[in-house]
Amino acid sequence: MKTILLIEDNKEILENLTEYLEIEGYRILGANNGRKGFELAMEFIPDLIICDVLMPDMDGHEVLHLLLETSATYQIPFIFSTSMSEQVDRKEALSLGADDYIIKPFEMEVLLKKVKTWIRSGSNRCLNILPA
User: Fold this and answer.
1) CB 60 within 8 A of CB 80
2) What backbone torsions phi and psi does residue 86 show, to the nearest 5 degrees?
3) pLDDT tens-digit readout, 109-118
4) What's this model's pTM, rounded to 2 decimal places?
5) What's the chain's Rg over C-alpha atoms?
6) Could you give the CA distance from residue 106 to residue 119 in angstroms, rounded to a whole number?
7) Residue range 75-115, pLDDT digits in tens
């Protein structure tokens, strides 16, 4: 069973995503903030991470930065989830090392397609040299 880590500070969104993805056959780890999400990623090494961008304490950019500094988590596919729809934000997120970007609100079927794609293909970063 593939494991997905959801990092989302909105409790309702986290619960809805968890329920939907569990029904689709995935094991879900949930974190309501970036720091806890990073800790769960280090402990369980999930197959995919879906992370909100704007969160208090540690935002999604900081989470991704920490994950990319660690060889154990470097290759995990990473999808940003955010309500920000400006094209500049998308380009920035992808340039920071995210594999994909989904804008809220989104259709669950669209998310599921992205989940299946990234779990199957792995991160684009796998083509790059791993950090020391």
Assistant:
1) yes
2) -65, 135
3) 999 999 999 9
4) 0.92
5) 13
6) 19
7) 999 999 988 665 657 778 888 899 999 988 899 999 999 99
Contacts of 103 (CB under 8 A, 6+ apart): 82, 83, 84, 85
The Cα–Cα gap between 121 and 75 comes to 11
Considering the domain delimited by 3-121, tell me its CATH architecture. Answer: 3-Layer(aba) Sandwich (3.40)
Kindly state the helix (H) or strand (E) to which residue 88 belongs, with its residue range.
Answer: helix 87-95
The token pair at 41 is: 């990623």
Closest CA to 68 of 132, 7, 1, 21: 132
Beta bridge partners of 29: 5
